[in-house]
From TrEMBL:
Belongs to the ROK (NagC/XylR) family. PROSITE patterns: ROK. This is ROK family protein.
Length: 310
């Protein structure tokens, strides 16, 4: 029996990665390649980074193995129909034809592109904390806040490919301005950097999410208030999303989700205020079931789990 792999590509604001992923959702050891991206790079330099990781991943293909196709997860916004991407933090790429770039590097191979949040939801549903649930939101709380939806067992992208942008749901009681033009978007309140910035404005003097976590554990009142505030905002956003689409489970990953396990308690407390609506309070909010390979596994799921990709 020959081995079958999908090429997974994950394009983010600081790096692009590619790897080979097998049909059980495991990244092949030694097949993971990384190149830098970032706002300071030109359009051609970003393309060079993508081509570099694709060349690398092809060299890692075991002899006799088959390639089924390539799945590409990209930071949003995306233009799914045309395979174009406009990642907020990669200013040189606006409506950039990323899918065409990958097709050119991998001729005669199927290539599927989706927003990275959708890939995370797919990965949680496939091999992560969302296994056994068919109405799942995958969520990342990191330098930004992103997400994606699996509803009735299928991904939901919407007509442009950007459904599930939970980071830009506005939450009541907050007036933090957001880069998108909104006021009180959950990303503008509760991302790692925004939580740190709020704590700094209250007089806390650290500079990273890790330091904030350490202060939290030490009982620092400002750090405690900052984490509680972010958890409340995330919980309000999840409660609103659940009111809208009746979610069963939300799996949260990303660096800042690890600031303290108490973050999840603050999230759940905010959701519990909707006590009259059992269909809202039922939503389970759990840490990601994925390793740091999650974004790549999700991109590979666009190929291996194509039957549930809407
Ligand atoms: Zn926003």
């Amino acid at each position: 029996m020959s081995l079958e792999f999908a090429i997974a590509v994950d394009l983010g604001g600081t790096k692009v990665e590619a790897a080979l992923v097998d049909p059980s959702g495991v990244v092949l050891a030694g097949s993971r390649f990384r190149a830098p991206t970032g706002p300071e790079r030109s359009a051609d330099e970003l393309a060079d980074s993508v081509n570099e990781v694709l060349r690398g991943v092809l060299t890692a293909l075991p002899s006799g193995a088959t390639l089924l196709g390539a799945g590409v997860g990209s930071a949003g916004p995306v233009n799914e129909a045309e395979g174009r991407v406009s990642p907020l933090n990669l200013e040189a790429w606006r409506q950039y034809p990323l899918r065409d770039l990958v097709v050119a590097a991998l001729p005669s191979m199927p290539v599927t592109l989706r927003m990275d949040g959708i890939c995370i939801a797919l990965a949680e549903h496939w091999v992560g904390a969302g296994r056994g649930y068919d109405n799942v939101m995958g969520m990342i709380v990191s330098t930004g806040i992103g997400g994606g939806l699996v509803l009735h067992g299928n991904t939901v992208s919407g007509p442009t490919g950007n459904a599930g942008h939970i980071g830009h749901v506005e939450v009541a009681g907050f007036d933090d301005p957001c880069l998108c033009g909104g006021i009180g978007c959950v990303e503008a309140i509760a991302s790692g950097p925004k939580t740190v910035a709020w704590a700094n404005r209250q007089g806390w003097t650290g500079s990273t999410g890790e330091e904030l976590g350490a202060s939290y554990r030490a009982g620092d009142p400002i750090a405690r208030a900052a984490v509680e505030r972010s958890g409340r905002a995330i919980g309000q956003a999840i409660a609103s999303a659940t009111a809208l689409v009746d979610l069963e489970l939300v799996a949260i990953g990303g660096g800042f989700s690890l600031v303290t396990p108490d973050l999840f308690d603050h999230i759940r407390t905010a959701i519990a205020t909707r006590w009259q609506f059992e269909f809202v309070t039922k939503v389970k909010v759990v840490p990601t079931g994925l390793s740091s390979d999650g974004p790549l596994i999700g991109a590979a799921a666009l190929i291996h789990r194509a039957n549930v990709v809407g």
